[in-house]
User: Which sequence fits this backbone?
């Protein structure tokens, strides 16, 4: 289907962050291309329109002839830029009363784990109206909509100048009547943009759906203005060209239907379409898309079908809308290169289009593009001449060379490495960039169960060809595909895309009964009818429209959804289990399935241009010349070939450069490039890549960064395995777990950014297992530990430890470990947190040095017996076993990746760099110590106890003593922190003093001497109870340390543990609060701080799963301490119970307020209340247990953070 006859032009455009790419199809069917800087205000106001005029041969003021353009298909970053730069429409949020702060609080986690000043993404909406209305999860109207009050508030917002409104009501995705009424009122008043959540994102999850609805309201007006401006500039009237835009889901739609929620991945989606369609012409259907542009690199997985994500984080905003599953890494041609703290760094900041790289003649910084230029991998004579004041100058090689010379001198001064040259420095930066991109590809492939070695790397984007061979080598891939238009493939993809419309609906039906398929088809029918009508209206009369229905299935109690084609129940179960096995490696037995949602897609197929088959020319290709190319540590002469002079059937060997009109391909040694019959360039390995790499064990600043990233990537991959395969909500959704790598002595090497209280203490558990089993461990053994007196923290935190052996099974090389917070490990109360426990046995089953797997065999029967033992055994042993199996699988992931690393680099090198990354962390902390002063602080606790610390700094030796002498004796109850918890808190605090991104590892503690007197509440003796030590005392330790350092006022100082359950249901929450202010920044409202970073379950999901109702989750205004920099505010969380349950609270700072510093005021104390159904109010203690009845409410007000400095 083509919208034009053969007498008009078509333009396919990708307006990217750095470049705007244009592919034009002339009236005779031939193609032309154009690449322009997206931002070049000195020369043109809009790159897309300027490119159209240039290709048409028109002057800057000449009108575009009417009727000469048939269609313009466009992908744009206008929406993405609007999010990044916060330049959208002034927007009003209308939401159910009690949830006005829901989008600010989000899921309460902080984005940067080690940031003292927590910076959350700026809210898109300017104003909030809380409306009186409430519908429960079953659709019962609890509070009727107060239309009069809502109209009054809407009119006031309209009078204040707001014209865009997002309407988001609790459970409105399924029961939209109140949203529909409010939308009618808003339109009557005159709001020009009205976005309702049930139309924008009709799926469960209030927070993500709310964000998506606000995005739609915020971006749609500015998007509409941009669309109108483009339409106006390319010609109007009866013969105006058809204007279509690419949606994030990979389908084109008419400009009139293009809206904010569908625009944020508009450009990258075109690249995915181009990738799949062009490679399919040559028979490549298993692809890894590698789209490297100027600002970032997009990677995607394709195995015959487009993969979509229905929940994505874009520019800090949660999006609940169908989008191509694209992973973006901040490593593009414009990624900035720098050297700091002994390490080479690439990105994440980018030079963008303005000023651009150093070679762009605008005074920009050194970037990946400059490294390629210096090494001859880019040739100025064969690169677009679009630079300088008049846009006609080449890349500035001299500026790049001078900048690298200066940087090299700086590195030599810092490291003493006199063997470095500008070329070796540039080569080092390129290696790090390649590893970053390879790790990004692993996230969308290996972490999702795909073996990429049998895939083809589909390489495109302006910078992709320069790095494709190296990225493929890093992943073990053997083949690379490059289309002749690879440099502008995202634009070309616009011309290959179909017109599509998607509709979604939430169903949440069990996959049972013979009639399930008929019921689902009936639910999908009206959606399919509407989507098909939308597509048909954009196609020629009579054009066929295909409708595809997909069911999203999950296991009951799980949050992991997998798509399958709608069919009968047995067929869908079989398809789901096959997908689950491929993705996670296992299928749970006898778990019921739920159909969470349906996705209906209508498709109007376009006539995809097919590259013709051409005759073969077997004669050798002729080089257009030779160039100097840095390779294998020196300059070499390499042939340069022009792509247009390479003919089908010809091939060449690397090293060589292939110059495209708008891109450069570097063919590395060991690779060959062949042109096939469709004129596609296919690169393949003709020489085996070296199985191992010879690397010195001496510390190298490039390899230091490479290994640090690799170690962290392995820990992160372990975490993905654990989250995906675990059973309990605690691990799968709240992400209350941590994974880490340890050296042969049990010292922490690297971690994924998980929960700090776990990370700093896991090494104690590993060393305890090593000590207790020395000489008795065998290959295939896996150990389990939660004993607080042998490296553990508290009993629900169960650590699984796997030794990693050499190939002969004689020597332990490393350890990997995973710690997960189990929902219940026994004890007197559900959740294993009795508030009045006095002995460890009351808190659950004590596990000390337990052999979980023996010689590769899971000791299931023995472990089941252990978990069922003692006076208060585990309540849900099957769930414990499922989570333990997931931890074993996570560890196996880490072990397998470490073995691969040893096979590639050699054991000596890997072990050496395990030491080097710790040494680098140690050096980073020592640099900080050189600027610290001595200090002491006493932190009072609610029970009358205290934590005392004195920090004595030896600046000359750059080390410090942290002495907790004076701390109270161990607590008679459960407020005792095992020594491992205290070490973890010290490690966390000193890691946060390092401003650069280093792994949290044992090296951070090397310059620190810890004195933790035995018998105190920071180093208790058996059998003291400890459950609150892990959650509460750990927070007080961090506050006390910051107080002694004078760097940060107290944060809320508690995790506000809230557990509730009965025989059928158990749930556990930790609740956020305010953070403390510092010498140069305020505190942050409503966010987790310090030793925890767990997520809060979305209120709609919570109400669907548990017999509770969230009535309020709001910022506790005024609870932050006063000061020149005020403390952050806590929150108010109000929960109503619909069934009798036992509720348990473990919380602090109910009597002693979070301190201020340097004259700043304290934060407000927290408060816990029970409100009986009859209205009686009962004050609850910080540690309390209460039996609640149906209709009762518990209200938790969390503390604010302390202020810093006297108020002005």
Assistant:
């Amino acid at each position: 289907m083509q919208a034009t006859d053969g007498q008009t032009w078509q333009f396919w455009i990708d307006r990217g962050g750095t470049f705007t790419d244009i592919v034009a199809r002339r009236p005779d069917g031939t193609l032309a291309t154009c690449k322009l800087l997206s931002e070049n205000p000195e020369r043109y106001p809009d790159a897309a329109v300027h490119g159209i005029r240039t290709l048409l041969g028109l002057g800057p003021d000449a009108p575009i002839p009417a009727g000469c353009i048939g269609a313009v298909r466009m992908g744009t970053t206008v929406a993405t830029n609007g999010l990044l730069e916060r330049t959208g429409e002034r927007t009003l949020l209308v939401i159910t009363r009690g949830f006005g702060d829901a989008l600010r609080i989000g899921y309460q986690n902080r984005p940067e784990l080690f940031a003292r000043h927590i910076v959350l993404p700026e809210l898109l909406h300017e104003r909030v109206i809380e409306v009186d209305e409430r519908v429960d999860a079953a659709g019962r109207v609890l509070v009727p909509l107060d239309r009069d009050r809502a109209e009054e508030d809407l009119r006031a917002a309209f009078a204040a100048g707001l014209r865009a409104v997002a309407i988001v009501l609790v459970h409105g995705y399924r029961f939209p009547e109140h949203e529909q009424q409010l939308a009618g009122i808003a339109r009557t008043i005159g709001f020009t943009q009205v976005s309702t959540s049930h139309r924008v994102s009709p799926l469960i999850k209030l927070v993500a759906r709310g964000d998506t609805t606000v995005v739609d309201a915020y971006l749609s007006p500015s998007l509409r203005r941009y669309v109108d401006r483009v339409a106006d500039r390319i010609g109007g009237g009866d013969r105006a060209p058809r204007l279509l835009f690419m949606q994030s889901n990979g389908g084109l739609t008419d400009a009139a239907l293009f809206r904010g929620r569908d625009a944020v991945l508009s450009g990258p989606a075109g690249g995915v379409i181009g990738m799949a369609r062009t490679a399919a012409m040559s028979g490549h259907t298993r692809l890894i898309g590698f789209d490297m542009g100027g600002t970032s690199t997009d990677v995607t997985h394709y195995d015959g079908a487009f993969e979509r994500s229905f929940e994505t984080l874009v520019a800090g905003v949660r999006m609940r809308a169908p989008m191509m599953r694209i992973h973006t890494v901040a490593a593009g041609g414009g990624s900035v290169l720098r050297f700091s703290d002994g390490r080479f760094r690439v990105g994440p900041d980018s030079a963008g289009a303005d000023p651009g790289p150093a070679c762009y003649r605008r005074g920009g910084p050194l970037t990946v593009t400059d490294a390629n230029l210096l090494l001859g991998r880019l040739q100025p004579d064969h690169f677009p001449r679009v630079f300088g004041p008049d846009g006609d100058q080449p890349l500035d090689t001299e500026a790049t060379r001078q900048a690298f010379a200066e940087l090299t001198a700086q590195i030599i001064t810092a490291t003493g490495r006199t063997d470095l040259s500008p070329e070796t420095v540039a080569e080092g930066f390129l290696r790090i960039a390649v590893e970053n991109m390879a790790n990004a590809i692993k996230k969308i492939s290996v972490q999702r169960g795909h073996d990429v070695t049998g895939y083809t790397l589909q390489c495109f984007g302006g910078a992709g060809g320069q790095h494709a061979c190296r990225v493929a080598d890093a992943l073990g891939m053997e083949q690379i595909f490059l289309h002749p238009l690879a440099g502008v493939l995202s634009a070309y993809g616009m011309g290959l895309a179909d017109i599509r419309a998607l509709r979604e609906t939430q169903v949440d039906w069990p996959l049972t009964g013979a009639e399930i398929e008929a019921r689902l088809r009936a639910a999908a029918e009206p959606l399919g009818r509407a989507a098909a009508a939308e597509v048909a209206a954009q196609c020629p009369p009579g054009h066929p429209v295909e409708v595809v229905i997909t069911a999203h299935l999950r296991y009951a109690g799980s949050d992991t959804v997998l798509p399958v084609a709608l069919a009968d129940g047995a067929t869908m179960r079989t398809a789901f289990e096959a997908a689950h096995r491929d993705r996670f490696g296992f299928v749970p037995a006898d778990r019921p399935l739920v159909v969470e949602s349906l996705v209906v897609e209508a498709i109007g197929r376009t006539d995809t241009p097919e590259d013709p088959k051409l005759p073969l020319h077997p004669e050798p290709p002729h080089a257009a010349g030779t160039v100097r190319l840095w390779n294998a540590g020196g300059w070499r002469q390499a042939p340069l070939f022009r792509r247009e002079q390479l003919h089908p059937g010809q091939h060449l060997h690397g090293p060589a450069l292939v110059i495209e009109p708008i891109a450069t391909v570097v063919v590395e040694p060991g690779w060959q490039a062949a042109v096939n019959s469709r004129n596609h360039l296919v690169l393949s390995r003709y020489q085996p890549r070296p199985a191992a790499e010879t690397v010195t064990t001496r510390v190298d600043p490039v390899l230091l960064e490479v290994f640090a990233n690799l170690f962290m990537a392995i820990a992160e991959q372990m975490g993905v395995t654990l989250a995906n395969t675990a059973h309990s909500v605690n691990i799968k959704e709240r992400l209350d777990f941590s994974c880490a790598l340890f050296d042969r002595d049990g010292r922490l090497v690297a971690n994924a950014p998980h929960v700090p209280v776990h990370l700093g203490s896991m090494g104690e558990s590993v060393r305890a297992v090593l000590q207790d089993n020395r000489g008795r461990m065998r290959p295939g053994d896996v150990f389990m530990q939660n004993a607080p007196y042998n490296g553990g923290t508290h009993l629900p935190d169960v650590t699984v430890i796997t030794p990693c052996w050499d190939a002969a099974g004689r020597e332990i090389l490393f350890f990997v470990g995973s710690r997960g917070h189990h929902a219940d490990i026994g004890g007197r109360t559900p959740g294993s947190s009795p508030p009045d426990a006095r002995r460890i046995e009351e808190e659950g089953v004590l596990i000390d040095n337990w052999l979980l797997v023996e010689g590769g065999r899971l000791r299931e029967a023995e472990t089941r017996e252990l978990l069922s033992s003692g006076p208060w055994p585990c309540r849900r042993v099957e769930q414990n076993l499922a989570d333990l199996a997931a931890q074993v699988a996570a560890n196996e992931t880490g072990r397998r990746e470490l073995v691969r690393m040893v096979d590639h680099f050699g054991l000596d090198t890997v072990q050496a760099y395990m030491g080097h990354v710790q040494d680098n962390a140690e050096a980073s902390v020592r640099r900080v110590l050189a600027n610290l002063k001595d200090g002491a602080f006493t932190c009072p606790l609610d029970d009358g106890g205290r934590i005392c610390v004195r920090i004595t700094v030896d600046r000359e030796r750059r080390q410090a003593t942290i002495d907790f002498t004076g701390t109270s004796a161990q607590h008679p109850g459960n407020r005792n922190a095992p020594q491992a918890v205290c070490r973890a808190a010290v490690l966390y605090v000193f890691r946060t003093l390092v401003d650069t991104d280093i792994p949290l590892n044992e090296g951070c503690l090397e310059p620190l001497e810890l004195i933790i007197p035995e018998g105190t509440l920071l180093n208790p003796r058996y059998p003291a109870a400890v459950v609150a030590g892990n959650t509460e005392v750990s927070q007080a330790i961090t506050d006390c340390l910051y107080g002694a350092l004078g760097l940060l006022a107290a944060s809320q100082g508690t995790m506000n543990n809230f557990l509730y359950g009965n025989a059928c249901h158990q749930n556990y929450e930790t609740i956020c609060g305010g953070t403390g202010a510092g010498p140069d920044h305020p505190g942050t409202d409503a966010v987790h701080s310090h030793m925890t970073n767990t997520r809060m379950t979305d209120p709609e999901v919570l109400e669907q799963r548990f017999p509770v109702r969230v009535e309020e989750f709001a910022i506790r205004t005024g609870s932050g301490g006063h000061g020149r920099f005020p403390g952050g505010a806590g929150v108010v969380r109000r929960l109503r119970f619909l069934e009798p349950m036992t509720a348990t609270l473990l919380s602090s700072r109910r009597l002693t307020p979070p301190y201020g510093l340097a004259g700043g005021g304290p934060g407000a104390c927290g408060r816990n209340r029970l409100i009986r159904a009859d209205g009686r109010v009962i004050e609850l203690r910080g540690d309390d247990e209460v039996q609640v009845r149906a209709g009762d409410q518990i209200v938790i007000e969390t503390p604010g953070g302390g202020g810093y400095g006297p108020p002005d």
Observations:
- The radius of gyration is 31 Å.
